[in-house]
């Protein structure tokens, strides 16, 4: 178990360690990279190996990441025709919420910075076009009173 079509899986074990697949076997996307950065900053230990269903009794929280969903909690897995619940608790949900909030704000601030820079670039283009229009207007209508 390590990823979906457009998602990466993270599992919080009963000792607080987050287990996720090694970079070599998954798409190391933007959200995955951001989650891993947040974990480093928050001092959360990450082990790079594929979580295995045989250790599901130790799963305390799980979540998927993707650009569309950012971070989505997983409450159960289907394995061999049976639903296997993640045995969560308040402290584990709080850990996932802390990571989700940090990822959300980082993503939002980066998107806002990108949009602001794009707007500034567009404003320069608009200013240049307006400036050219004024010059063209003066050249095309040199005798017209304004």
Write the layout of secondary structure elements.
Elements: E1 8-13, E2 18-20, H1 30-42, E3 46-48, E4 59-66, E5 70-74, E6 76-79, E7 82-85, H2 90-140
Parallel strand pairs: 2-3
Antiparallel strand pairs: 1-2, 1-4, 4-5, 6-7
Helix pairs in contact: 1-2
Would you give an account of this structure?
By secondary structure, the protein is an alpha+beta fold. The chain is 44% helix and 23% strand. The protein has a single domain, classed as D-amino Acid Aminotransferase, subunit A, domain 2 (D-amino Acid Aminotransferase, Chain A, domain 2, Alpha-Beta Barrel). The strands form two sheets. A five-stranded mixed beta sheet has the order 3-2-1-4-5, with helices on one face. Strands 6-7 form a two-stranded antiparallel ribbon. A hairpin with a 4-residue loop joins strand 1 and strand 2. Helix 1 crosses helix 2.
CATH architecture: Alpha-Beta Barrel
**Content-based structural category:** alpha+beta
CATH class: Alpha Beta
What is the beta-strand fraction?
15-25%
By DSSP (H or I, 4+ residues per run), the number of helices equals 2
The total of beta strands comes to 7
Give the N-to-C terminal Cα separation.
73 Å
Q: Let me know the largest β-sheet.
A: 5 strands, mixed
Query: Into which percent range does the helicity of residues fall?
Result: 40-55%
What Rg do the Cα atoms give? 25 Å
Mean pLDDT: 78
Low-confidence stretches: 133-141
Summarize the structure.
The protein has helices at residues 30-42, 90-140; strands spanning 8-13, 18-20, 46-48, 59-66, 70-74, 76-79, 82-85. The protein is an alpha+beta fold.
